[in-house]
Amino acid sequence: MKFISFLLASLASMAMAAQDSKECEVCVKVMEDIRATMSKEDMKSKPKIEAAMGEYCANKDDKLTAREKKICYYIDPIKRDVAQPFSLGMPSLKVCQRITKSNPEICTVKFPVKTDNMEKKDLSKLRVKQLKQILADRGVDYKGLLEKDEFIKKVQETEHLAGADEF
Q1: What residues does the ARMET N-terminal domain cover (predicted)?
Q2: Tens digit of pLDDT for each residue in 16-64?
């Protein structure tokens, strides 16, 4: 009986992990990038973690995308709150979920949906919300569109604008 409950619990955790792959995706990437710049010893020191965050976010080479810069903007005033769980070795997703309590917008930042070379059938699998986001990222006005087919047609018509996106 214990084995079955253990098996069910592990299946549930695997399902949650698959669902969480998109949760806080930009924040998780930023945290992983910051971790990659630090040594094991530095990851235990809160002041060094705060300094590493500052260095990462002050990257003047324009290597950061607009979404990563947005995360930096959100975490700058709460560096100390981020450094605490970071110093304990908490996984990046958990750090992001914890700091979302301070600023709920942190986990709303998502990477854009890639649409290059998508066929109509692939676009039809997307939700209208995702299609709206694609159009918004391209700077296309979608007011007046009601049906999903209309959104798909508009995305296909504006495919030439995809080069301006951050893909």
Answers
A1: 23-112
A2: 444 445 788 889 999 999 999 999 898 899 999 999 999 998 876 668 8
| Angstrom distance (rounded) from CA 42 to CA 23 | 27
Sorted by sequence, the CB contacts under 8 Å of residue 60 that are 6+ apart come out as none
Q: Are residues 35 and 67 in the same domain?
A: yes
Are 27 and 103 members of one domain? yes
Same structural domain for residues 133 and 91? no
Q: CATH no. for residue 87? A: 1.10.225.10
Its pTM surpasses 0.70: no
Give me 63's structure tokens: 């290597």
Is 33 found in the same domain as 99?
yes
The tokens for 6 are 């253990």
Same domain, 80 and 156: no
Render pLDDT for 83-124 as a digit per residue (tens, 0 to 9): 999 899 999 999 999 988 888 888 888 877 665 555 455 888
- Going by C-beta distance under 8 Å and a sequence separation of 6 or more, which residues neighbour residue 103? 74, 78
Same domain, 98 and 131: no
**64 shares its domain with 92:** yes
Per-residue pLDDT, 48 = 92
Q: Up-side HSE of residue 53: CA atoms within 13 Å toward CB?
A: 25
- Would you say how long the chain is, in residues? 167
